[in-house]
Amino acid sequence: MSKMQYAMVMDLNKCLGCQTCTVACKKLWTDRDGMGYMYWNNVETRPGAGYPAGWSEAGGGFRDGRVAPGEIPPIGKYGVPFEYDYSQRLFEGKGKPVMPHVDPTNGPNWGEDVGDTDRGETHFFYLPRICNHCTHPACLEACPRKAIYKREEDGIVLIDQERCRGYRQCVRACPYKKIYMNEVAGVSQKCIFCYPRLAKGTPNACAKQCPGRLRFVGMLGDPLSPVHQLVRVHKVALPLLPGKGTGPNVYYVPPFNPPRRGAYGKGILHDPRIPWKSLEALFGPRVKEVASRLAAELEIAQSGGKSDVLQLLIGRDDKVRYRIPAGKGATG
Amino acid sequence: MSDGKISRRRFLWISSLSAAGLLAGAAGAGKESPPEVPGFRFDYDPMRSYPYRGWESLYAKQWSWDKVARSTHSANCTGSCSWKVYVKDGVMLREEQASDYPRISEDLPDYNPRGCQKGACFVEYVYGAQRLRFPLIRTGKRGEGKWRRATWDEALESIAGKLLDNVYRYGPDTNTFFSVIPAMSPVSFCAGSRLAHYIGGVVCSFYDWYCDLPPGEPLTWGVQTEACECADWFNAKLIVFWGANVTQTRIPDAHFAFEARYNGAKVVGISPDFNSSCTHADLFLGIAPGTDADLAMGVARILVEEKLFDASYVREQTDMPLLVVERTRRFLRESDLEAKGSDEVFCFVDERDGKVKKAPGSMGSPVKSIGLAGAVPALTGRYEVTGKTGEKMAVVPVFERLRKVLRGYTLDKVARTTGLDRRDIVAFARMMGTRKPAMIIHGAGTNHWFHNDLINRSMILLVALTGNTGKNGGGFNHYVGQERVWPEEGFKKLAFPEGGKKQRFQNTTLWTYVHSANKDEHTYNGKKIEKYIEESVANGWMPLYPKNRKQKPRSLIVWRANYLNQAKGNEKILPSLWNDLDLIVNVNYRMDTTALYSDIVLPAASYYEKTDLNTTDCHSYIHPFSKVLDPLFESRTDWDIFSALAKKIGEVAVRRGLPPYRDGQFGWERDFTKVHALWSGGGKISTDEEAANFILANAEETKGMTYAGLKERPRRFVRTDPVSWNSDVEEGVAYTPFKHQVYKKRPWRTLVGRQQFYIDHPWFLDLGEELPVSKEQVTDPYPLYWNTPHGRWSIHSTWRDNRYMLRLQRGMPIAYLNPADAAARGIRDNDWIRIRNHIGFCVVRAKILPGERRGRVTMYHGWEKFLGFRHGGWQSLTYIKIKPTQLVGKYGHVNFRLNYWGPTGNNRDVKVEVEKVRT
Amino acid sequence: MIRRDFPIRQPIVSLVAAAVLLGSAPAFAGFTLAQGKETPLLLNRTPPMFATDRAVPNRDLHARAMARVEGKVLRVTLSWDDPTEDAVAGTKRAAYGSDSIYRKPTGRTDAFGDAAALMLPRKPGARNPGIMMGDRDREVRMVLWRAGSKVETLHARGRGTVEKTPDETGMTAEPSRAGIRRSVTFTVRDFDPAVPMAFAVWDGGTGDRNGYKWYTPWYRFAR
Question: In chain A, which among 129-188 make CB contacts under 8 A with chain B?
Fold first, then answer.
């Protein structure tokens, strides 16, 4: 166990589904050969198949204390990155409408805004996902080359890009399917929690560039960090698929939707639009308790009172949302 | 164990054959005792420490750069987001929000980071396949995509010659100039508008044409649009998203709404579809399309009946107490009472003494304040007054008339029309009446209906009745289009140096309708729209160029815009207006649809290769574009392009020995040999940086600022020019409009000097629209609404063809269908469908969306015609419908003014049928 | 119809596993390759790595070898049926359509490449080296062919110690294919007929890589 652990909290009630995090990450880290299909950070609409499609049912994690690798998703579950031949149409007079080079059947955001219908009303929310930098990483356990490690100083889980040989046992073992094979490089790759940025005191690109300002970053054990406050003190943030046994370090403030038609005034959770079972499947059995506490806080705020936890979640500026211990003055 | 680094190097080369060995995992990875091999380490615990971390510098190197420069985007997103662009080895690699907007106050959340996913991948356009690299001259048919590379000299010579031909042969008003939204890059806009100004060309509007102008605002407030900056949302205790999907269309600002919620605001989402903004609402009202005025009027009825309105605000700030003559339905004017009375002075009854008094602050009033000086204007009652010739007139306050109208909007009726639950309507009305401050965030979802003016007026009525307009955290705030240039006077002086009175301005909706084969077959009060148009033009209410009605427009120069792709009635324009033009020039950094269908394409600098400024309604800062790199390939900045064109016009004029042209409309002797000298301000505004500094120096808002200084950091405006603005910029306070009226009692910019809900222009009276009402949509007999809203994946057509964005969608245009509508037509997800009506059709992919409203099909707008459609385009279904009341002029504050008042190019009432394409 | 070249499988696996437990295998001459005679090979399958792994791949594999020694040069051709061509190589940058700046999309996230290897003890000895990459006292050298990649030479002294031998020039491999029959001919110069040899085959189409593979016990060359 590393002594210190970086963690991120994402407030799903602030997420816009705008994918700025996705593009920020893509342009910084995965805009290179062999990485077209991979999104270390993705945002998916839930309920939905997610990215890669069906990842939450594709196995991985631990079973009876032993790592239990699941599937390696084929490219079709991620979606082939589309290419376009503009020149023929725009400059060469060949006249064919510009179309993606493959017939689109899937993509990382294929189910955008679809969600589900329950008793005649629709519900959905956005779920941004990065590597969870787990306390007990199944990927690390599964790697036959021991090329995956957890940094003792901050708990970031990395794949040694020089020692990895692309066997993809980690891809199988990760219950979040957050490790990606780079066919060109012959190695597996994943979110690095922007360690080069953190080293200079600049928060992760996905967090710093998030216009919804829903991401909070800091050390879980640092009592002054917002993540500590939200996870340990206010206890309003929950990890994803806690039953997989990996101890993820990305936490989510669970989502609300507005009440169902005609139900306004009875409390936002009186007749919830999102069925509990759908949330429990992702965030575990504690989600009802946590959501109810948040609803009570919201009620206080909207009745003219002040809620400490909601004031924190407002996150008025960078100083509130991020506490980067290695910070030597933000750059970039 | 020896040095891990050295051994690691060798370890790297281990083949896939081997490493963990034949039976490696059988006993659990790494559990056996390691072999002792010199130089190799196998005893580490990757959970504790790892010996081979030297490789980590690999990623550190990826996050490095040689140069950073500040720029932004000119796509009319209303965002105005300051970005840093990172350059490595002479190539622009990526961009990141500059995130250095200064904080307004400790209480308000800041504006950082400001920018969305689209801004984060603009670099793709700098180097992408769509980029225009050289001047091109068409060799095939328009739109075919066959070109030859030309020199700048050849291309400019050809344009200059044609423009001069037109002036002398057909008149200067056959040369037409179209560019949009100066706020997003005023220097680039002015480059072309100055040239139009000096050669007598017609400058076309955009804000009304794109239906982003909320016509209810000029009617009610006498302004173009006034909205609070988005930080002010945080001050609200009720936020209503009404026709605005802020999570998609106001990405950099949406956080203020959800942070306001945590600070005690309730959020109401009103939309036909359960969209992403509504997912974060406390109350979702899934309204039937186009019934927003019904809901607003229904809510107004509840506010009035339950006495949830702010009577003192209404008496002072609105026309509700002003008297209307029952018989004529016109305001009681001073001229009705006195022989030399003004037509622009109005009256109310003072409750204190029951006497009729002249309301202060109207256009004809000598009093330049709306302060009541103790009077209590009556809102109710029926009175009798004696006219100047002794006749008796029954008069009632506007409020009385409004109450009568509101009585028609019973809860049952409104619930039935809007499809909403009665309990939800009442809950919403009571929130509106009790939570203060309350604001409506308004957008194109409701503004694009034919009766947008009525919808606007009915919503503005709600925030006026409840006393929210002109207060921080309140009001009706419309954000569609980045129309407001903060340093307005500086901009105007640069854009039209001799003043607007010496410039030909044209409402584009009217221009396009008249000059194309668009025909609206509907009748309005029994008359075709052509009748109204002729009357309006004849009355001098609306201009129409060319003035000589036998002439057609001859040339069209488009820059900073994608006119053709975005034009309603696209299918009708191509064979008519487009076909009739002899010369179409496009100045662009990318080959978009308009460029593709042009004759000459001039390569412009991209957003990261130019010097310019950028402002928005959404915040109170100004920041620049800059040349991250000098213009790439053979591209040039807009400023340099129009400078070169002005020079070329001069050269051609000299060569041809052209005498000065007498422009009769302005009495202007136009000497074309001197065009460049005039254009460049006698050489004082030769460069784009000089132009930027000219704007900054000539506006109150930017006094003391320089272009060079702005490159350091965004700057908040120092003060507002009272000529253009209705509030001050205050230290530590978010900007919101109309504080001058509400707190300083300055008159509103309307005929009556108050928020004017009653318009007694004869056309309004004839059409029954003197007060806000709901009206039937103007549709055609098809079952599905054709909904083309703004979405998250593009800013109009920009980013529509960007790979990074397409990969996060479905790779091509898609139309969203409700599952039931799809099932009824045998359509499954991702099927090809044909969308058709009597105007045209397009063939695209379907996406089944449970949140979509039944009876509606949605395609987010802006798709380029050449991408992903098997046939047609998203504008193949639309046509131009002009609303008669929007042709009105010469009524108090209601006069044609470019982008302030003129017919809007609405498109929401279009209906279609959809069918599966069997392939 | 799959022809079973060698009738016994699982018992041999156990036998080899037992040998592994003993540290290194005794040098018995149970398996031989005769000069110029094509011989079916005993192919063992590595056991599953994880509890969630399938015990055996969904495709059986049959391999044969034909060895010939001429002078001091061993040429041994390993052949097997493999209907799928699985090569994982760096996908090259390529123009897409006429837009030359674009890269050809990549992404066979779940594909693995075919491979085959020949392993020999570095020196003759009384006992054969461990079948798992030799052992501390008995070094092995290998030549590895991977579809789509360069042939590599390697050496090891036990599991987890494999290293590349870039200066090894005495061993090469040459692939060929005839229909579904895939062959790799390994050439070893300065071959000492006293040392045994072992083979391994990875069928990329069934997910073989690393410790998932087919392998043989030690074979001796018999003239």
Answer: 140-146, 148-152, 158, 160-163, 165-167
